[in-house]
């Protein structure tokens, strides 16, 4: 038998087995979809992902559910094969689909009105993110803004929001420019030679977040082996949901309390060994998570000492770390209804957890967006020329200075970045929502614990939402037309959208403006081979190979 026939035979066998298991499980749970108002009972409601032609064909809401380990494994393999055979990925976009997470139903939604209900109108019922149980292991005082829920999240957001106000961003832009100075010095060494600019962007974004948010002075843009970069990169190499214990908690939710107790016991054991056998624990201190947290604690301790020594200094540094430390208290919040009391309280451990989170979040997302921008600029010289024209005009008007106010006057730059994020969204799963209270959304019953996952790529490439221009074409001007707010979800939507949107846009615009003012970006010979986007925690390319040519 020829290899191709053998492969097809095996695939067909797996699909038949999967279909049989789907049938058995669907029969056992035939009432599941009906009770919630979904047409079609059992595992699937509507049609397979990506096959929506309109409301008369399907409701753009797909649900999957499995009830034991073998069914889930077989379903996963079969679903992937079927998606590959029936819905071969478009060469310009990697299709994203989600299936059931064990026994927990996940609704993959591309209906904008349904999403508007979930993210905005009924936010009180969907204020939680869908996170693995490991993200909720710790006490409330160790949960950061990303993982917090309800009043806990609202209080943290209230404290952190002022960091990203217009006033604070104006004060921060000179710090960002200093970091970009270091980037430009490194780029100067690469003139007229092919190199991967993505690696330089990673060092830049880590440098920016450390300097501007936490006051950490590093030389990471010159030190290619800087441990902050090396250790942080590990976090984006392993998806939490690929961890065995996390998979087990999804497949058998009733095991979650036992798994939680087990992991807590391991943590307690490590904490005890830290004091009883410090020499033994030294080898574990280099584990990326432990190393970064230890560094974060040292940074916080140093800032606290500095605050005490400069108690009368009215010109002290006001950044994200300072705002959180100002809100620190060792007392529990007793009156949750007292907004004034609630808004002023922050626990010491919450500071550590949030510094860790912002350091991780500010590193990969912005650098990946810059990488995607560079790919477009290298392959679309017409777009690059329009941007350079706008940048040159701004440069001439303001005596060669780029700051927060001036970059916000660049209309085409804003359109360009939004189009990059439309075509190359980064954190697809980060915008999911978990139902906290049973509710009805667009006549569908959603129960507590159910997960709503926006089908972001379907939304971003929907011709009805983004026409009349072909959504597979890069057309920045399409963003001049008013669209449905749920059509663009690169930063999420609703009260729980990305808290650092304005900071990220400032960093992106400053970097691109200064880079394109001095250089033209040309494609490297390996640009297409390197720009293969893979999803782990975020969707990121392997590399972006370009050449930089000095402008006259």
Automatic annotation (TrEMBL):
PROSITE patterns: CYTOCHROME_P450 (PS00086). The chain crosses the membrane at residues 6-26, 66-87, 254-273. Belongs to the cytochrome P450 family. Keywords: Heme, Iron, Membrane, Metal-binding, Monooxygenase, Oxidoreductase, Transmembrane, Transmembrane helix. Heme binds at residue 498. It comes from Rotaria sordida. Its cofactor is heme. One of its GO terms (molecular function) is heme binding. This is Cytochrome P450. It holds the Pfam family p450.
């Amino acid at each position: 038998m020829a290899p191709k026939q053998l492969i097809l035979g095996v695939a067909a066998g797996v699909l038949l087995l999967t279909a049989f298991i789907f049938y058995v499980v669907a029969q056992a749970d035939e009432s599941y979809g009906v009770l919630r108002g979904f047409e079609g009972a059992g595992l699937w409601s509507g049609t397979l992902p990506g096959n929506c032609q309109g409301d008369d064909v399907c409701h753009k809401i797909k649900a999957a559910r499995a009830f034991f380990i073998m069914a889930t494994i077989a379903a996963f393999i079969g679903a992937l094969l079927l998606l590959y055979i029936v819905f071969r990925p478009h060469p310009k976009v990697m299709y994203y689909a989600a299936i059931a997470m064990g026994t927990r139903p996940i609704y993959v939604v591309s209906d904008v009105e349904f999403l508007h209900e979930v993210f905005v109108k009924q936010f009180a019922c969907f204020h939680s993110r869908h996170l693995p149980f490991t993200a909720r292991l710790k006490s409330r005082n160790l949960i950061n803004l990303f993982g917090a829920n309800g009043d806990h999240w609202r209080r943290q957001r209230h404290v952190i929001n002022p960091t990203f106000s217009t006033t604070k961003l104006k004060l921060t832009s000179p710090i960002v420019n200093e970091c970009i100075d270091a980037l430009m010095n490194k780029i100067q060494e690469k003139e007229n030679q092919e190199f991967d600019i993505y690696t330089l962007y990673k060092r830049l974004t880590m440098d920016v977040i450390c300097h501007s948010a936490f006051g950490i002075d590093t030389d990471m843009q010159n030190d290619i082996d800087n441990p902050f970069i090396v250790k942080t990169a590990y976090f984006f190499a392993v998806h939490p949901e690929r961890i065995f214990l996390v998979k087990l908690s999804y497949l058998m939710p009733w095991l979650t309390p036992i798994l939680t107790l087990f992991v807590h016991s391991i943590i307690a054991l490590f904490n005890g060994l830290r004091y009883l056998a410090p020499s033994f624990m030294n080898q574990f201190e280099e584990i990326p998570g432990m190393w970064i947290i230890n560094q974060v604690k040292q940074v916080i301790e140093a800032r606290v000492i500095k605050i005490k020594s400069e108690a009368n200094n009215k010109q002290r540094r006001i950044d994200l770390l300072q705002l959180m430390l100002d809100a620190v208290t060792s007392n529990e919040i007793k009156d949750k209804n007292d907004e004034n009391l609630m808004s002023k309280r922050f626990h010491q451990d919450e500071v550590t957890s949030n510094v860790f989170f912002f350091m991780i979040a500010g590193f990969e997302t912005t650098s990946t967006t810059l990488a995607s921008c560079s790919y477009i600029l290298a392959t679309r010289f017409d777009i690059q020329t329009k941007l350079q024209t706008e940048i040159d005009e701004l440069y001439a008007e303001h005596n060669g200075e780029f700051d927060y106010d001036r970059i916000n006057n660049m209309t085409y730059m804003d359109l360009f970045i939004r189009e990059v994020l439309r075509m190359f969204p980064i954190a697809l799963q980060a915008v999911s929502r978990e139902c906290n209270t049973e509710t009805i959304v667009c006549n569908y019953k959603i129960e507590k614990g159910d997960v709503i996952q926006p089908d972001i790529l379907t939304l971003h490439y929907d011709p009805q939402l983004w026409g009349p221009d072909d959504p597979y074409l890069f057309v920045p001007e399409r963003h001049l037309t008013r669209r449905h707010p749920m059509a663009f979800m690169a930063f999420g939507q609703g009260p729980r959208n990305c808290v650092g949107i304005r900071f990220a846009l400032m960093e992106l615009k400053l970097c691109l403006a200064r880079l394109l003012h001095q250089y033209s970006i040309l494609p490297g010979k390996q640009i297409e081979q390197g720009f293969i986007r893979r999803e782990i925690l975020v969707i990121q390319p392997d590399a972006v190979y370009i050449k930089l040519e000095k402008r006259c």
